[in-house]
Design a protein that fits this description.
Distance between the termini: 60 Å
Oligomer: single chain
Radius of gyration: 23 Å
Strand content: 15-25%
Number of helices: 13
């Protein structure tokens, strides 16, 4: 019976009618152009589309390169289940299947570097964690841009536009969030856990056993995330809430909005009169590398929301970037902007595993296909059970000691910004499957205030050729020292008294890593990306030559283009990036509306 319900569910999704404004053929576009052309239907682009299309006088076009899969992302079941979110990275039909150059700091390993390639972008494939970052993160942005609109207090109203919802098990959340830091209205759904984990009680007890290192924080999204908190995620009613489901799907019937999918923007074209300031409001795009190139003009603005990898690539292809870089590929120079593609920042991630004495872990879901199918059917029929949550329910954000970072070398934004995220959960490994026997937990370590910097550069002048991605992991030796401390902090956490008799021993390569040198080698052989690229078209003051956009997000040196995505972050926040990106997109939409309300 349940199996037949599952089949019926999928068939209903497959045969659902396409939305009237969701287009797959460029010939269907308005010939006279649009007021606004948004490049990318991802985390930020869909927010911009929603807010602009809410003004009936505006015409809006969104161009998304995402593949045709049930016409829209609405029918992709795997993107809707919170627990299995990491598995989506294996589905190359939903991702830009990028890889990095060999990472010198990681023993020359090449890493996968997937980004979402569907409606919702990476918000449709990420791990759902919703963390705004710290007060200091945003105040640092205000300092480097010289504009108070980016301060925490000024940004908080935009961060509040997400809606907190009751978890699916309807438990009392008074000890898990502080209501003053949340809204009960808004398109994006957020919540806390709806299914208990076997280690929840131990983690809460840890905050009492070692309150100095792991203090309890009643709400990670207060502006000061330091301490142990209950995880908030972008889900509601047991399903993922993405920028597509929250912002785009509800407006697809708007007569002033077109969304063109399966189509890649290839460059912006300068339409300025000879000798005038470059005007890049003509957008070129194509279905694939061999198909016809189309163009469309934005009467008001082009908004680049293609992300920290694709946005700098597109700017370079359009002649905006370092003069020397463009000359290598014989791309005509439009604006010499040396910061394009530079300043790439990302969060290194590693997972350490531990063998535990328990029969309550969820390892068997990964081992037993029948059990996994039963749990999935429970999610489909009732939106309950383990699949309604991400893999853990609490995490800890920690600052390392002054023996590692001090005032002169601290890469964090300030005392409310963590250096390290510790995320205890079920067995997690990005290199091996769960072992055939035994019970395990993992602690995922994230270096959330990295000192290293990397770059995005062109591989060729072909827009369908992937760019060269170098996150520069552990290029700065300080990052290695912080990650060594992170591994020790994770071990310190599970060696507190609440874990007595539960943890048996470290598992895998970590079991033999005892000295700092051995731990660093474990780190170099284990680190992967948290898939949080930022900073490659950073905002800054007008006199900063490395700033690509100004504080109002206009592309410097040209007319008619703004950039609104993670590429504009001058520093990566100590946070998972979707919450700050939503806030930036809401702020950016407000700036656009303010500009054109006066026109």
């Amino acid at each position: 019976m349940l199996r037949s319900l599952f089949i019926t569910f999928l068939l209903n999704l497959l045969i659902r009618p396409s939305f009237s404004r969701l287009l797959t053929d460029p010939s269907q576009l308005l010939k006279e152009g649009y007021d606004f052309v948004i490049v990318g239907a991802g985390n930020a682009g869909n927010v911009i589309a929603n807010r602009l299309a809410s003004v009936p006088a505006f015409t809006v076009l969104v161009i998304e390169a995402g593949v045709k899969l049930f016409v829209s992302d609405a029918g992709i079941v795997s993107t809707q289940i919170p627990f299995i979110a990491p598995n989506i990275l294996l589905n190359t039909s939903l991702t830009w299947d990028y890889v990095t150059v060999p990472q010198e700091g990681l023993n020359s390993r090449i890493l996968t570097y997937q980004r979402g390639k569907l409606l919702g972008g990476s918000s449709s494939i990420n791990f759902l964690i919703f963390t705004r970052g710290s007060r200091d993160d945003f105040d640092r942005w205000a300092n480097v841009t010289g504009d108070s609109i980016w301060e925490w207090d000024a940004m908080f109203p935009f961060a509040l536009k997400a809606r907190f919802t009751t978890p699916v098990d309807n438990h009392n959340t008074s000890q898990e969030i502080v209501p003053n830091f949340h809204n009960t209205k808004g398109p994006l759904l957020t919540t806390v856990n709806g299914f208990p984990s076997s280690i929840d009680g131990k983690l809460v007890a840890t905050t009492q056993a070692d309150s100095e290192e792991f203090p309890f924080n009643p709400d990670t999204n207060s502006g000061n995330p330091i301490g142990m908190s209950w995880i908030q995620s972008t889900s509601g009613g047991g399903s993922r809430s993405s920028s597509a489901t929250a912002y785009l799907h509800p407006i697809l019937s708007h007569p002033n909005l077109d969304v063109l999918v399966e189509t890649q923007v290839t460059r912006l074209i300068n339409i300025a009169e000879k000798g005038g300031k470059p005007d890049l409001r003509e957008v070129e795009f194509a279905k694939n590398a061999t198909s016809h190139r189309f163009t469309i003009r934005a009467k008001n603005e082009v908004i680049l929301s293609a992300g920290a990898v694709n946005t700098p690539q597109l700017l370079l292809l359009s002649g905006v970037g370092p003069k020397s870089e463009l000359a290598k590929f014989k791309i005509p120079l439009v604006v010499d902007s040396p910061g394009v593609g530079q300043n790439l920042q990302d969060h290194p991630l590693l997972a350490q595993q531990f063998l535990v004495n328990s029969n309550e872990t969820l390892d068997d879901i990964s081992r037993n296909a029948t059990l996994a199918a039963d749990v999935e059917e429970q999610w489909i029929t009732s939106k309950t059970g383990p699949f309604v949550d991400v893999a853990g329910n609490l995490f800890s954000w920690v600052r390392v000691g002054s023996d590692i970072v001090n005032k002169s070398n601290d890469p964090s934004a300030g005392p409310t910004s963590a250096h390290v995220e510790l995320f205890p959960n079920e067995f997690v490994s990005f290199s091996e499957a769960v072992p055939a026997t035994g019970s395990f937990i993992s602690v995922v370590n994230g270096l959330v205030s990295p000192a290293s910097r990397g770059s995005i550069t062109l591989n060729s002048s072909d827009p369908f050729d992937f760019p060269v991605i170098d996150p520069g992991f552990l290029k700065n030796p300080l990052d290695g020292r912080i990650l060594i401390e992170s591994v020790k902090l994770a071990q310190k956490m599970i060696n507190t008294s609440p874990w007595d008799g539960f943890v048996i021993q470290p598992f895998g390569a970590l079991a033999n890593a005892t000295t700092d040198a051995e731990i660093l080698e474990f780190v170099r052989n284990t680190v992967t990306s948290f898939w949080h690229p930022t900073g490659t078209a950073k905002m800054g003051e007008q006199n900063d030559p490395m700033a690509v956009v100004d504080s109002k997000l206009f592309l410097k040196g040209v007319q008619g283009v703004r950039v609104i995505d993670t590429s504009i972050f001058p520093f990566i926040p100590a946070a998972h990036l979707q919450a700050p990106t939503y806030a930036v997109a809401e702020r950016g939409a407000s700036l656009i509306q303010e500009t054109w309300a006066k026109a």
